[in-house]
Every structure is written in structure tokens, then in C-alpha cells.
Design a protein that fits this description.
13% strand, alpha+beta, six-stranded antiparallel β-sheet, single chain
């Protein structure tokens, strides 16, 4: 054997190898990203449910039973039939009853897609939440990238990067029976108690235009996104 000979790869072989690596990466990377984002959603949903309800319990110990709270900001309409913005009243109620028991990193005022003033509250893990513009029964939780998610229409954000919760323990009627005398719960207003209604066929089913029940699907599966989940998590 010639002592001066060397061993190595030709340029063509190197390019082919790089091409194969790139092809494999392009096929596997989206799956890895999807799994990671799903894991983040699962972890932060469960954490938010825990810390917000700890805050509710601590506040109840100080402020007494829910019926005596002045927390509840109800929706009202003006003479033209439009909802009156209650963002400031909602924030005042939040600051009085729940904020003292939560570690809020910052509060930011923003304008939503309907031109309504609202407040965004960011937590230390990068997640955030906001109340509706006209009442404070509904709480929208964002596991990550809240401001990006807020720019999307409801159908393209709820159940993907935004998740609906409710806090309304004072209404003992059939429409609110899954929330009565409880803390913050996944959105279950008007739910008929059938699992299939969470997925499809109802006003708030996860596969529809108003997908508020998506949070309940994950919660009822132990805060894990089930395999038959109707939406693709992304944030």
C-alpha cells in the first residue's frame, strides 16, 4: 500500500450525506416541536389550574363566602346593543380578590381583535391570562406567546394556544351547575354532561367555531391532550 495515500470522502459523498441528514431532520423536527409544545400546554394548564384555585381558596379565607364578594362584574349592553367594556372594573376586582395571592410578573393593557380594551397578566413561567372585555366570569389562559395568540381569530386560537376557564360559583342553575360553589374550572357553561358534546355537535364543542370546551377535554383526561383531540396544539 502506498504510504502517501489518504482515506476520506468525496465531495459527492459528503453532499449526499448532508442531504440525507437534512431530509431526516425535516421529517422528524415538526413531530418533535409538536410534542414539545403539547407538553408545555399540558404542564402549564395543570399548573395554572392549581395556582389560580389556591388563590381562590386563600381569598375565600380572607373575604368569606363567594356570595358576599363584590368581585362579580356582569355584562351589560348600551342602547345600541353593544357590550359595555368592563376592563377597568374587572381589573379592580381582580386586584382586590385574587392578585394578592398570585405571583404576577407584569400587567399589560392591550386592545383585542374587536377593538376592546383588556388587560393581560403574565406569570413567571411565561404563561399569561386575560379576562373578557365585558365581564370576568371567563378567563382565557395562554400557555405561551400570549400576544401572538391574541392576534388570531377565536376559531384559530382556542384549544390551540388559548384555553377557556370560568369562575362563577354563585349561580345555582342548570346552565352553571358544573361551576356552582367551585373555584376556577374549565369552561363548562351549558354542558349537557355528555363527553361527545365536548368534542362536537354543541355550541362550544372543541371542533366548532366557538371551541371553549377544549380545555375540559384536556382536564378530564388528567391534563393530558388525548389522541383524539380535535385540534393541533401550537403556540
Amino acid at each position: 500500500m502506498n504510504r502517501n495515500s489518504t482515506f476520506g470522502f468525496t465531495m459527492a459523498e459528503v453532499l449526499i450525506t448532508i442531504g440525507i441528514i437534512g431530509l431526516v431532520a425535516s421529517m422528524t423536527l415538526p413531530t418533535l416541536v409538536q410534542k414539545y409544545q403539547t407538553h408545555v400546554v399540558e404542564t402549564r394548564l395543570k399548573k395554572f389550574y392549581s395556582i389560580i384555585n389556591q388563590a381562590v381558596l386563600l381569598s375565600k379565607n380572607v373575604n368569606g363566602d363567594f356570595e358576599g364578594w363584590t368581585y362579580w362584574i356582569k355584562e351589560e349592553k348600551d342602547e345600541d346593543g353593544n357590550y359595555i367594556n368592563k376592563a377597568d372594573s374587572t381589573d379592580q376586582a381582580f386586584q382586590l380578590y385574587l392578585a394578592p395571592y398570585l405571583n404576577i410578573l407584569y400587567k399589560k393593557e392591550f386592545t383585542d381583535g374587536n377593538g376592546q380594551k383588556r388587560y393581560l397578566y403574565e406569570l413567571t413561567d411565561g404563561s399569561a391570562f386575560a379576562f373578557q372585555a365585558h365581564e370576568n366570569r371567563e378567563i382565557i389562559f395562554f400557555p405561551s406567546n400570549a400576544e401572538k395568540c391574541l392576534k388570531l381569530p377565536k376559531k384559530e386560537s382556542f384549544g390551540l394556544c388559548a384555553f377557556a376557564f370560568q369562575f362563577y360559583p354563585i349561580e345555582n342553575t342548570d346552565l352553571w351547575k358544573y361551576l356552582y360553589n367551585k373555584g376556577v374550572e374549565p369552561y363548562m357553561h351549558a354542558w349537557d354532561g355528555k363527553d361527545e358534546s365536548l368534542y362536537t355537535g354543541s355550541t362550544y364543542s372543541c371542533d366548532g367555531n366557538n371551541p371553549n370546551y377544549c380545555t375540559a377535554i384536556i382536564a378530564r383526561n388528567g391534563w393530558k391532550v388525548p389522541k383524539n383531540y380535535p385540534r393541533k396544539i401550537r403556540w
